[in-house]
Amino acid sequence: MDTELWELLHDGTIAKLDRMSSGELKITLEIDYVRQMFDGDGTSLFIYLTDCDVLRYVPYDGSLPIDDFEQLAREELSFICARDEDGQVKVSCGYGDICLRYGTARVELDDERSISRDELEDACSRYWGVFAKNAPN
Predict the structure, then answer these.
(1) DSSP 64
(2) 3 state SS of 125
(3) How far is CA 15 from CA 25, 44, 90, in A?
(4) For 17-51, how does the pLDDT look when each residue is reduced to its tens digit (9 = 90+)?
């Protein structure tokens, strides 16, 4: 597990969660600004997690945690920042945290092309460089 992956996915919104026949958890993440930095059409990335035994959303208001895949996707949770806490990655989503514990993660574009961490980092760096250059002072 590592928080850096989730930091790169800033502003990504969970669209769908699926448990694959391989046992992997597939997160469909709407994150068009990153996706547009790669060739081809699309608006999403697929994040595949192995050995994921914790996936839950814990609202800050004290209401009950959510661990149902369909309900989590309906929440339209957007990633803000991540931290490692108590052996889990906790991704802040504005009004609560997504808590994750898993073995490994891999990333694909929504056309099922695998991308490396370096490619993802480069795409994010290019996007934020353009963003900063065009931002009003």
Answers:
(1) P
(2) helix
(3) 13, 9, 18
(4) 998 888 899 999 999 999 999 999 999 999 999 99
